Amino acid sequence: MGVTRCTAICQGKGGVGKTSITANIAGLAAAAGLKTLVLDLDQQGNLARDLGMPLDSGERLFIALRNGGNLPVVHDVRPNLDVVPGGHELGDISGMMVGRAMSGGVTLTTTLRTSLDRIADEYQLILIDTPPGEQVVVEAALGVASAVLIPTRADDASLDGMSLVAKRFAAARGSNPSLRLAGVLLFAIGTQGHRLEAATRAKILGIISDPSLTFAATVRHSDSAAVDSRTRGLLAHELEGAVAKDRADRLAALRKGEPIPAGLLNRNATGLAADYEAVTRELLTRLAQIEKEEVFA
């Protein structure tokens, strides 16, 4: 059985906004009052950058996952938001656990479940950020989650990555029958790209065959916002406030005849913040539906 209200964010291809989506959903859910935990299983550890945390080596998480020990939780990264940071040391976890499983030892799924079960009841929402190319890690996340969210861009390589996750999802349900598809989320779809969006939704429908499982909400992409967010450790709704302050500072300097401060690269984060709010609302609604389906199953 999957851990209640635990969602794995998975994609077979990198560069589809997976970590940014995870961080922003977590931040908004926490801001809405939900006690939230984010578990970063990616050796790149970029979730820490998105949340303005010091980078971590991942060694403490590696040790916990090796034997099902206590997860190294960093508390109160934001109000109601706790984080288990990843890092480069996780690069060895797949090889070690494959060797152990081949010799009859416990799997990564088992140790991850043991570690997560110990604290899961403390949280109303748990999000797991997964690496794109580590099959063992992704399968472990799917083995403990109750839902999976698959972000994708419109290009064929991203859709191939989505198709790969769909296959792993189907296989994971053999050992975790409570696992459900929360949905597919379109990332980096421009606000004027209506034909592209329609064409991409049609391709997704050819893979998952249920239009209700493609999120109505989409997330636009802005290179300037992405750089500002990761450089400053600000989520989209926080960046929105920072942009407004930055604008006020520029105007004040202009009035005083002073040099205009360089400030942020982005000039308007309102649309991006609204996108993430819509995505978070849709995910939480879907998770509530999944819980209800489990109760009446």
Topology record:
Blueprint lengths: L5 E4 L8 H14 L4 E5 L5 H5 L8 H9 L6 E5 L2 E4 L8 H10 L5 H10 L7 E5 L5 H10 L2 E6 L3 H17 L7 E8 L6 H15 L5 E6 L3 H10 L3 H21 L13 H26 L2
Parallel strand pairs: 1-5, 1-6, 2-4, 2-5, 6-7, 7-8
Antiparallel strand pairs: 3-4
Word description of this protein:
The protein is built from eleven helices and eight strands. Helix 3 packs across helix 5 (108-117) and helix 10 (236-256) runs antiparallel to helix 11. 49% of the residues lie in helices and 14% in strands. The chain is globular, with a radius of gyration of 20 Å. The chain has 297 residues and is an alpha/beta fold. An eight-stranded mixed sheet has the order 3-4-2-5-1-6-7-8, with helices on both faces.
Name a few traits of the molecule.
297 residues; alpha/beta; eight-stranded mixed sheet; 11 helices; 49% helix
Number of separate strands: 8
Helix content: 40-55%
Biggest sheet, open or closed, and with what strands and sense? 8 strands, mixed
Q: How far apart, in Å, are the first and last alpha carbons?
A: 13 Å
| Average of the residue pLDDT scores | 91
Percent of residues in beta strands?
Answer: 5-15%
Low-confidence runs of at least 5 consecutive residues: none
Count of alpha and pi helical runs? 11
With strands numbered from the N-terminus, the spatial order across the biggest sheet is 3-4-2-5-1-6-7-8
SS-based class: alpha/beta
Q: Based on Cα principal axes, name the global outline.
A: globular
- Rg, rounded, reads 20 Å
Query: What is the N-to-C succession of helices and strands?
Result: EHEHHEEHHEHEHEHEHHH
